[in-house]
Amino acid sequence: MQTALPNYQLRGRQFFTEHICDEIFTKIATKIGQSLKHFLKLSFTTDIWSEPSANVSLLSLTAHGITEDFTRKQIVLKCCSLHGRHTGDIICDYFKMMLRDWNIQNEQLHCFIRDGGSNMVRAMHLAEIPDINCTVHQLQLSVRSALDEIQVKDLLAKCRKISGHFNHSQIAQDELIKIQTEQLNQPALRVIQVCVTRWNSTYYMAERLLKVKDSICLYASKHSIPQISPEEWLYLNKLVAILTPFEEITRNLSDTNTCISSVIPMIHVLKHTLQMEKEKIDTNPNFKNIIQKLIEDINSRFCDLQSNTLYSLATYLDPRYKLKFFNDVIKEQVQSELIRLLTLYDSNVASRVDDDEPSVAKRARLASNASNVDPSTSFEILSPIQSVHSNLADMLKNCSDEEESENDSMDTNSNLMIWKTLINEYNKENRLQLNEDPLLWWRYNIKYKVFAPIVRIYLSAPPSSVPSEQLFSAAGLIYEPLRNRLEGEKAAKLLFVKYNLPLVNFDY
Predict the structure, then answer these.
(1) Element (H, E) at 131
(2) What is the rounded distance in angstroms from the CA atom of residue 300 to the CA atom of residue 97?
């Protein structure tokens, strides 16, 4: 700056902090508030993060919605400084305050995705907000229960000691890399250490140890570290095979473009993949018991998925899945629920049309504006093996669509007849490939535009609270050892600006 413009006085850190937290924050918040009006309903993720060194706790609120042109949006609404005890009653009050700050009414809430903590569950119950568990959290709890088996627990404890030895000694790490590159002519790979706050870190540690197995054995012959026997290497290999589908599903459900519609198919194929692994010849009785325990735990945690309208209707409205994973009873219930919502939505739109308007013109007007009407305020909510992706693709490909609703009875309600016909036609449509975008399909298939409002609502919910947890990764970067006295309110504003600037295309 001295060279380019000698007379310019470079501003200090405090100026930029105040400029961001006051002027820029206010302008972006105004734009975000205006954009929220374009969504029929919003889904939310939330989580709590604490930094003991700074004595700060933050409660996040991230909104998820689908615009009229079927574009998925993720908006960080609030990262509120949480004071006092983290009880359900206090968290409930904070939720109400955050929603009130953005003028979000209860009628605009689709659902909340939260972790399984009792305080979060109670907060949602007190606030009377539709809520669901974070799918990824539930899967990780299932994995942890299986890893508590004595045989696996002892083997993993030995693996953690080995990885800890290399992560605490640069000399040991350098020698291991030297063995890989000079003696074994292998690529240099570092040992991965388990991190309790990182999902799948146990899997990554075990997988990496298997890759550097030969160099670990050579190193152990010269140094005093725990040695893994040939039988234990086989056990570790089988453990990685069991955890592989969990790792793949965790990555899939953590993707920003994945929605709640993938939960039922993913859980179904996960159980199928585990069952296939259990039936393999090289799976010993101990691991068969572990796999069986995993399947039972998954069945227990996800037993009510298909009976939950939030999941089942979202799965049906995803053209990649539709009715593939439902039995006849659930198929009938899902389609009946869709008709009920269409009727409810149509009746609320019709109530705002002039009563003197002829019925034929009224129906034409509704049809032309079906995808652009305002949200209804009384819209109700009812409560190394083959990869998971390959198994799921095979399941969807091996069965043709036999998902037609065969109700041909005459109905006096013309709208009802039209909806049933559209549902039958939708069921007969070929399913999309797994790598195709379901929102893009809905955008261009305008003959189903009467379904558009419901699609935009039910496909808006993400399957996990990962968006809120990713927000706290940035919070961990803000609170450094030399910056641990930053006020929670300022940190919240900095996070808000960081994540929402790209959303407004840096135009504020």
Answers:
(1) strand 131-133
(2) 35
